[in-house]
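Lecture 7, part B: from sequences to assemblies.

Below are the input chains for today's worked example.
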Amino acid sequence: MKDLRVWAGITVVIAAVTAFWWMSERPIANGAAPDISGTYWATEYQPRIQPVGGGELPFTEKGRAAYAKNIAGLKDGSVEDRARKYCTPDGLPRALATPYPFEIITAPPGQILIVYEMNHMIRRIAMDAPLPSAEELVTAPFYNGHSVGRFEGDTLVVHTRGFKDETFLDATGAPHTDMLETTERIRRVGATELEDITTVHDPEYYAADWQARFVYTQRTDVRIEDYICGFEHRDISSVTRRR
Amino acid sequence: MRIKTLALTGLLAASAVMPASAHHSFAMFDRSKTMTLKGTVKEFQWINPHCWIVILVPSAQGPPKQWAIELESPSGLARKGFVPKSLTAGMEISVDIHPLKDGSPGGSGTDLSLRLPDGTVKPL
Amino acid sequence: MSKSYRSNLRVRVLCAGIAMGVTALGFALRASMGDAAQASTASARIPNFAPDDHTSWYPDRLDGDNWLPAVGGGPGPILSRPDHPYVPNDASDEPTYRIADLSNPILQPWVREQMKRDNDEVLAGKIPFMARERCYPPGMAWNVFRRVTPPMVFFVQQPTFVLLMYRGDNQFRHVYLNVPHSAHPKPSWSGESVGHYENGDTLVVDTIGILVHRYNFVDNYRTPHTDQLHVVERYRLSPDGKTIDVDVHFEDPGAFTTPWNARQHYARSDKGPIEEAICAESAGRGTDIFNWGLTHAAELAPMPQDDTPDF
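Predicted structure of the full complex, as structure tokens:
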């Protein structure tokens, strides 16, 4: 009898798990790539980028000197934070820390777009084309770099190269060179959560590759708004500012 | 060494959306005059719609004078072998320009040339 | 095999069967959700403005930054004063600035007065304001821009919205499909746009809630509007998919004596995809050419700038 109760219990659990999974918001159509489209908004903002595992960023001597120069320059005004002052794109990974919503759109065929409310940025991730040549990445750099992507199971993997070197990695002025390379692993991690784990590779300034993790909540009640530099923007008091 | 022609399209001067006016034409430069500036590069701006050289030219009467030289777009300069780091702050160069008609410290370097510290002449 | 053993075995088999059946049903139901979504999109017969990420659209004439008059006449857009024709940059070595023809009867008196002051300033040497040249979004002048090298305008079509993107300065606006307007939309530069498809070839976009601002105009002649502005755009794709006829209807009793209509015509380009192009890239670098000893340079509209960021 006990044996039968165990079997009945197992059956109920399997049925419940299956029902929950079906009702969850993770549509997958006929074995196609996972659907990560939607509007997302972080609930926390950190001006200083936090490497996974904690601690300081693994600066080289050059990197540390560049960081000190940026910190001093931002303080005395000799270095401009153009992303905040003129609303030029933040660059990566700083743009991923945005306290404003953004939207992932999987269209038209061949690309994934990420449109950010902050600074009305458009990132295009080419899904069926290689990166531009090394020469083109140097002569035609983008603030947010040139991105190519592919799906690995449930994860969108995005490689980005060809950055303009006038952005910072975070709001404190963490530096990077024009040889910066980032790799993002973007995937859903719950019914409404999306994570982006970004690996930063810039050997001239960082002695080792390091990661930062960004988490967002999907919002079906939010529409991306206009964003004009210096104008009033949406209320972001719902986003907790961390030190 | 010349860089091969860019395969990317759409990087030509998109002046309809940049700080440029319908009246921005080369008419503001005196194309009948050419002058040579010798000085220290302060900035080499690799931006659309025009790249710029900001150069400090020594002056007999006091501190160096800052000149701004308008060049082609990044893609245009890339076709002539330039990259963003072709000129760096502190470099001593000389550059030929068509000066502004009104005498302000500026001019166009397009279709002229500059000389690098090692003597290399680079067409603009 | 004992009787109780057979009975237990039957129950175990039954439980296993139920578990497998529920699991299979779950897979089947989720797969059919995907099928249904794809089938409904295909069967709706919507025009395809973007078969791939390289398709974009641009005005196929040099003065694409002017509205065209509506087909069939009737109240139409502001154009150039006949004694001061607009000559675009690419048409001539002697381009001209726009001087608005204020004899157009669509203008309310206060609008005519404001635009006459603008005209007079330009005639006296001031560089006229154009939103895209000073890094402002175009607002309802979205569809009038100079024909520079493509790619320019993109349509990104999704089941619940269309995203319109403009390469220049990476401006974009959303059109939410098959939903009504909000009761009280918060005014914004591009307004609140809702839309639907018609006749299998047309996207209709209805916009209200357009912010009134001294730099927000309905064209490049600096024609202003009030908070009553209501704009309906119809984008009709040609049967061969190579051109779009854009018909735009403007209503604003506060600014205009009558509703009026204007047109734009796009040709298709395959020179995509969208790429980063940032107007403010040259902001604040001290090399804005228009500060070079030009008369009235100090009167240029300042480019948007944020001296006290929100975070």
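Note for the exam: Residues 30-123 of chain B form a domain with the OB fold (Dihydrolipoamide Acetyltransferase, E2P) fold (CATH 2.40.50.140). Keep this in mind when comparing with the next example.
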